[in-house]
Design a protein that fits this description.
6-stranded parallel β-sheet; globular; 6-stranded mixed β-sheet
Length: about 250
């Protein structure tokens, strides 16, 4: 498979290594300094482009790839609020193809399945309140993380006493705190920590007067995300439309 990389930072380098090890070819690498290469023959020759950039650039990158009918796998978060409807229209009936996920880790996919199952159980026990906390490296721009939002939406979907999620505080290594943890009883609080070079920790906590139940996913490195992105590209090669990890991982 011919792969183009959009974003060639730490994640892009790791994706490249894994893709090459699995027998794929990298035909184009696009970063901030060579945006003109979106219109190159090399980019147009790609079967799939893997995009890991930032929330402000992601949607425009999709449009540039779709212009050449190149399928996209993307792990960029933060664009859905403004452009979800546009992307759904672009990918309707398989006209263009985007495989998007807030997190490509196989472990997070399993964790998400456990989260949904646990929420269904805990819906029967209103004495437990639930909150979510995510920790990432200090370079991460968005808070809460896209993965935390996905997990929060799963909980809200399955627990009747929570009607929405609310962004709580973000705590930084230098001691300053953004935001507030004030929330209504029917809101699921999602708190954030930005600490050193942490790849990603997501913790869901159910607490009552009697006891506490906690589940956590702790990424040791970005390697799991990179492998998942390549697996998603392999899946996307033969599928069309708007795809996500629930299509790739059937559990």
């Amino acid at each position: 498979m011919k792969i183009a990389l959009i974003g060639y930072g730490k994640m892009g380098h790791m994706i490249e290594q894994i893709a090459l090890s699995r027998g794929h070819q990298i035909v184009c690498k696009i970063d901030v300094n060579n945006q003109q290469d979106f219109d190159s023959p090399e980019f147009a020759s790609a079967d799939v482009a893997i995009e890991f950039t930032n929330p402000t650039a992601a949607y425009d990158n999709y449009l540039k790839a779709f212009k050449h009918n190149v399928k996209v796998v993307s792990g960029s978060t933060g664009w859905m609020k403004d452009h979800k409807a546009d992307v759904e229209a672009l990918t309707k009936d398989g006209k263009q193809t985007l495989f998007w996920a807030s997190n490509f880790s196989i472990g997070v996919a399993i964790f998400s399945a456990v989260n949904r199952y646990l929420a269904k159980i805990m819906n029967q026990f209103p004495q437990y309140d639930v909150e979510l906390e995510e920790t990432h490296h200090i370079h991460k721009l968005d808070a809460p993380s896209g993965t935390a939002i996905t997990l929060a939406e799963e909980i809200v979907n399955d627990i009747d006493r929570k009607t929405s999620w609310k962004k709580g505080t973000t705590r930084w290594d230098d001691g300053h705190v953004d935001g507030s943890d004030d929330h209504k009883p029917d809101e699921l609080l999602v708190k954030s920590i930005r600490h050193e070079e942490v790849p990603g920790i997501h913790t869901i906590r159910y607490d009552s007067e009697a006891d506490e139940i906690t589940i956590t996913h702790n990424a040791h490195s970005r390697k799991g995300f990179a492998l998942g992105a390549v697996l998603a590209a392999e899946y996307t090669l033969n599928h069309t439309g708007l795809l996500t990890t629930s299509d790739l991982f059937k559990f």
